[in-house]
Amino acid sequence: xxxxxxIRVLALGLIRDGxxxxxxxxxxxxxxxxxxxxxxxxxxxGEYSRDALQREFKEEIEAELTNIKYLGCMENIFMxxxxxxxxxxxxxxCDFADFKFYQIEELTFWEKERKKKALWxxxxxxxxxxxxxxxxxxxxxxx
Length: 143
Known about the structure:
Blueprint: E1 7-14, E2 16-17, E3 20-28, E4 33-42, H1 49-61, E5 65-80, E6 83-96, H2 100-103, E7 106-111, E8 114-122, H3 123-127
Parallel strand pairs: 1-6
Antiparallel strand pairs: 1-4, 2-3, 3-4, 3-8, 5-6, 7-8
């Protein structure tokens, strides 16, 4: 089944430190646009979304999470790299178990043979629309 005809279920973690969010940077090569979103990843069949969230953070940046609290479900239909996508996001608020992650400005990780960057960004940069966060209604969960 192609990505065009499939709804993807994601577990994403909102990690906040004061006015900063821990964000993953992405790039759409068709739109030639940089965007940001909180980290996490796909939920596998038979896996609870909370477990997927913990697994994804461990796989991608070797981080343990704590204080995990469910915030809600978001639905997002969008274009990425010229293809229409549809996803259901299970969103969690959480913290890093290891304080060292709050001291790192940015780090690089690999996701599906793609080099990616995660970094701390001021929420105000998204609220002012200087930077694009996806999905766009995500900021409702940051207040």
